[in-house]
Amino acid sequence: YNLWLDKNSISQKSFYKSYFDENTLRVTVIGLGFVGLSLTAFLSSKKINVIGIDSNEKKIENLEKNIADFFEPDLITFLRKGRKFQKFSRTINSESLDSDFIFITVGTPL
Fold first, then answer.
1. Which residues, other chains included, contact 72 with Cβ-Cβ below 8 Å and sequence gap of 6+?
2. pLDDT in tens, 38-54
3. Separation CA 110–CA 98 (nearest Å)
4. Residue 103 · residue 26 · CB < 8 Å
């Protein structure tokens, strides 16, 4: 898609509405720490399909029950609101790689 639309083409608003249709946009977030889980919760609360991946099995089990392992204001509210748009996994698979956007939010060792 050409993001630089001229006056003779479709409006930018209709372009973004058709391209970023909230029911078809897929995002994968790898790493569900503070940044990754907050991003997952927010995007899914906006009806964006999100696959959250973390290697910690206990964390995945808890997230499926809307239990986070840290406190962030409104995090649980966003998790609950977007629950039907979330999938959690311990592994990267073909479905997660077929996303429109992939965010890697793992810790960086110093």
1. 34, 37, 38
2. 999 999 999 999 999 99
3. 31
4. no
